[in-house]
Input
Amino acid sequence: MAFVFVVALLLFAVITMPARIVIKEQDYSIGSDQIHLSNVSGRMLNGSAKWRWRELSGTAQWSVQRRFLKPTINIAIYSAPLEAEGRVVFNLSGRMEAENIKLSAEVEAFSQALSLSVGGADGSILGDIHKLSWSSKGEVSAEGVINYSGGRIHWANGSATVGPLQLTADTDTPHLTRFKLQAPSASRLYMDGSLEGRVFEWRVYRRWIQLLGMSQGGSADDVVFIISDQW
Output
């Protein structure tokens, strides 16, 4: 009976624990960047906070539940240029999975926030990411689609206006994801790539360079640029 009482007491403490006891109002490092959390409110299992990243800010809401013995966090993020919601699942195998992510974002706001020296873009994106998973070894896989409305793309020495684009990600195996960037209404392939374990490869076709007005000759199906990296 004493054991049952202790377990019940601990469970009650977790359920009623204010979120600000665990989630501090401070800067958190994400890679080489930082995100600041403030106004943390609610309970540990169901709360909200305000966030700021560079020039962007908004609110985040979360709720914790259990699905088939897997801890799951439902997350929603809101700001003027971004809305996203989905859930994060922690598996017993050590992999984390983000599922059913719906997002919409204004590209120009993020271009300005990132202050990219190579250029930027405007327009908007709508994303429907079915699954994004990663392991403690750094292996990543993804399934879903992101649609770009089209807009103006600019770089140091020029600019171009492009039509709608679609980026798709499909998982062939648990360790291999293939990507394609193309026009949604046709099979014109602009770029494609793969992510296998921790090895990333990306190919750019002449068709993309022609779309930007930077190439006049050659076959549109020629690969003109390859990026390969490993982390």
